[in-house]
Structures
1.
Amino acid sequence: MCSLNVGILGHVDCGKTTFTKRFAEIASTSAFDKHSDGGGRRNTLDLGFSSVMISGRRLALVDCPGHAALIRAVLAASTVFDMAILLIDARNGIQAQTAEHMLLCKIFCPEKVIVILNKVDLLEEKEVSLEQTKKSIRKSLKLMGILESSPILEMSLDDQHFCEEYMENLRKTIEMLIENFEPPRNTKDPLLIAVDHCFSIKGKGTVLTGTITQGTLKIGEEIEFANLKEVRKVKSIESWKTSRDKIEAGERAAILVTNFEAARFSRAIVAVPEYLKPMKECLCDVEPIQFFRSSLSSRTKMHISIGYETVMAECQFLRKSGISNSGEDEFEQLDKMEMPCQVWLIFEKPVFVNSDFLMASRLDQNGKGCRFAFRGFVRKILEPNGKLIRFTRKHRTGFIDRLEQNSNSAICAGMFKGETNFSIFQNMQILIAENPEISGTIEGAFGKSGKFRVNFRDGFEKLQEKWKIHLFLKKYLNDN
Ligand SMILES: Nc1nc2c(ncn2[C@@H]2O[C@H](COP(=O)(O)OP(=O)(O)OP(=O)(O)O)[C@@H](O)[C@H]2O)c(=O)[nH]1
Ligand SMILES: [Mg+2]
C-alpha cells in the first residue's frame, strides 16, 4: 500500500494550520507555521508538511497557505495530491480561494475530497445556517466537477470547543475513502523529485525535502539540479524521521547532499543527471477554466505553473488547420483564445520539466474572481524560434461585374488593384455571400484594370450581376 499525499486547502484563515496541528502525528518541514515568531497567529506563508498514519498507511499532510498572494505554492504542491481536505469557514461558506482550491481538487483528486465545515462554534443560528451552507457546498462541488456526495464534516477546532470525536470521525471517513485506493506510481522511469524546500544544516550539508514523483532513489546515486547544471551525490535519505536506503515514487524524502549552497536553489524539479532539458517554447493542448471571466488575446503574458515552478510566458493561440506541402501541421493564428485551440507558449526563462501538465493564470488579477484561465498539456517541445507554420486569414470582397453565359464564367471586379499579379491567385476559391452553395475559381486577369475572370461549374445559372463575392486567403507569417 503506497503512502498518500493529502492537500489541506481552504481560504485564508479558515483553520487549516489549526486543523493540521491537531490531526498530524509527525511534524516535518515548515509545519504549523514554525516561522511565526512571538507565538501570535500569523498567516501561513509556505507549504507545511506533516504526517499521520491511517489504516497502516502513511498520509503526508500538505498544509497550504490560504492567502491569495501565495497561490503559486499551492499550484506547485497540488500536482502531487492524491486527495484533499478542504476547510470552509462555516460563517462564510465558499470564498475566493476556496473556489480556486476546489478547481485544483477537480483536476487532481475529484473523487477524494473531504470537506470540513469549520468554526461552527462561531455560528449564531447554528442549525438553520449549517444546513443551508451544506446545500450550497454540494451545489458548488457539483459545479466544480468534484464528487457531489463527498463527505462534509462539521468541526470546531479552537481550544474551547474542540473534542477528539471530530478527529475520530475524520479518521473513519478517511479509512473508507482510502480503502483499496492505490493511485498509480511510476517507479520504472528515471527519478524525478518535486523539491519544496532546501536548507543547510551546519556541519552536515544541505537538505532537500520533497516528493518523489517518478522513479526510485538510493543512497550514493547522483541527482542533478538541472537549472544550475550541477550534480551531487546523495549522502543519506530520510522519510518521516526514519533513515532509508531507498525511496520511491509517491513518498516524501529528506535528501542530504554536501557542498551545495542552499540559497542557490528554490522550489523546482530535481532529476537524474541529463534527464531534464531546458524548455523555452512549447505547443500545448488547452482546456479553458469556465470560471475565468476575461477574454484572452494572443501575445498576452500569463503565469504558467508547470513542474513546481511558475514562470511568465507569452501565449499565442493557434488552431490546427491543414497540412503543409512538406507534411507539417499548419496553424491559423487566432486573435484571442477561442475553443477549440492550442497555445504556443514562449517562456521568459527556460523551465526544466518533464511534467506535461500546466496551469495558466493571471495571478496579478487579485480580487476579480477566478484567476486560473486555462489548463493544458504539453503536446510538443519546440526549439527556440521554432518552425511552427502559422498563418492568419485575410478576407477580400468584390462583386460580379458581368456574367459570361457561354462559358459559365463571370468577370468580377472590386477586389484587386490594376497591377495585381494574378498568378498568385489563380485557382483560388471565390465564394458567394448570397448563396453559400455556389463557388468558383479564379482563372486570371481580365484586362489591366484589376478585373478578373472566375469559372463557375455548378450553380452558374443562379448567379446575378452585382452580387458580392468573397476570397479567403491564408497569409503566412514571415518569422518561420
Ligand atoms: N473560534 C474558532 N476559531 C478557530 C477555529 N479554527 C481555527 N480558529 C482560529 O482561526 C485563526 C486562523 O487559523 P489558522 O489555522 O491559522 O488558519 P489557516 O487556514 O491556516 O490560515 P492561513 O494559513 O493563513 O490561510 C486562528 O486564530 C485559530 O485559532 C474554530 O473552529 N473556532
Ligand atoms: Mg495556515
Note: The mean pLDDT is 91.
2.
Amino acid sequence: MECRLTIKALSTKIAGMDKKTVLFAAIFLLLLAGCAAAWFVIGRADTGTEAVITVDGEVYKTVDLSKVKTAYDIEIDTEYGHNTVHVEPGAISVSEADCPDGICVRQGKISTGGVPIICMPHRLSIAISGGDIDA
Ligand SMILES: [Zn+2]
C-alpha cells in the first residue's frame, strides 16, 4: 500500500517535471522546425526552379515552376516560328512546335537545372536556373 503510494507520488512528480521539460522541448523543437522550414523555403527560392524562356538570346518569360499549381500552356509566336510551351508543377516542356527538326518537342520535359531545352530553328531555349549544376 505504502509502496504503491510512493510510486504514485513519484510518478506524479516525474509527470509534473516532464510536463515542463516537454513544454520546453516542444517550444525548442518548434522554433528549430520553424527555422529549418524558413531556411528550407528561402534555400529553395534561392536555388530556384525558375524556368527562363529565351528567344533569340532575350528573356521572353520566366516561370517559377515551384509555384505552378495547375498545368498550362504558353503559346510563343515569333518571327522564327511557333512553339507551345507546356508548364506543369515542377516541370516544363515544349509540347508542340512547327520547327523542321522537332528536337525541342522530343527533348521532353525538364525539371532541374541540367540540360536546357533548345529549339535551334526558332532560337528558343528554356533553361531552369539554380540547381546543383552551374551553367
Ligand atoms: Zn524545335
Note: The chain has a mean pLDDT of 85.
